[in-house]
Amino acid sequence: MLYEFDRGSTAPEATKNIQARPALANQKAVNLLHDNSRPHVAQLTQQKIEQLGWEVLPRPPWSPDLAPSDYHLFLSLRNYLCNKHYEDFNELKLDLTAFFESKPSSFYRRGIEILSERWANVVENNGDYIVD
């Protein structure tokens, strides 16, 4: 399951959104990767995660080398946006939508799958930042 929490949403709202999508809510195991921002470490959030039986994957506080959004998604997005210029915000928004919709589910899945490889690299480098 891959679920992106909307900025400003609460744990109960996110839970309701996930439960409204049976394919997500009925997963046998959920591994949750998120940062340590206040909403994620709040007691209410932690209680809900425990109630749902989800496992929170460990992650250092600031680690873009271990964040699939940073090392996989944004790298591809940066290449896509290279040398592009937009007349207005709406044009940018439309192009970003086209980018995200053009990516097959296998693209997003691969970003998650290589996470374990990246964790192993961090361990091999004694916790040092990975430079691609």
Mind sketching the topology for me?
Elements: H1 11-19, H2 22-25, E1 31-32, H3 38-41, H4 43-52, E2 55-56, H5 68-81, H6 89-102, H7 105-113, H8 115-124
Parallel strand pairs: 1-2
Task: Kindly summarize this structure in a few lines.
This protein has 132 residues and is mainly alpha-helical. The protein has 2 domains: 11-56, no CATH class; 64-124, no CATH class.
What this model shows, in words?
The structure is a single chain. The chain has helices at 11-19, 22-25, 38-41, 43-52, 68-81, 89-102, 105-113, 115-124, and strands spanning 31-32, 55-56. It has 2 domains: 11-56, no CATH class; 64-124, no CATH class. The chain contains 8 helices and 2 strands. It starts with 10 loop residues before the first helix and ends in an 8-residue tail after the last helix. The protein has a two-stranded parallel ribbon with strand order 1-2. The protein is mainly α.
Core attributes:
Transposase-MT_Hybrid, 8 helices, mainly alpha, 2 domains, 3% strand, 132 residues, single chain
- Helix and strand pattern: HHEHHEHHHH
Strand tally: 2
Percent helix, as a range, is 55-70%
Strand order of the largest sheet: 1-2
Class from secondary-structure proportions: mainly alpha
When the domains are counted, the total is: 2
Report the principal-axis shape. globular
User: Helix count?
Assistant: 8
What number is the mean pLDDT? Answer: 75
Q: What is the alpha-carbon Rg in Å? A: 17 Å
Cα-to-Cα separation, first versus last residue? 26 Å
Q: Which band does the percent of strand residues land in? A: under 5%
Regions with pLDDT < 50 over 5+ consecutive residues?
A: none
Main sheet makeup: 2 strands, parallel
Protein name: Transposase
GO molecular function, one term: nucleic acid binding
InterPro entries: RNaseH_sf, Transposase-MT_Hybrid
Organism: Rotaria socialis
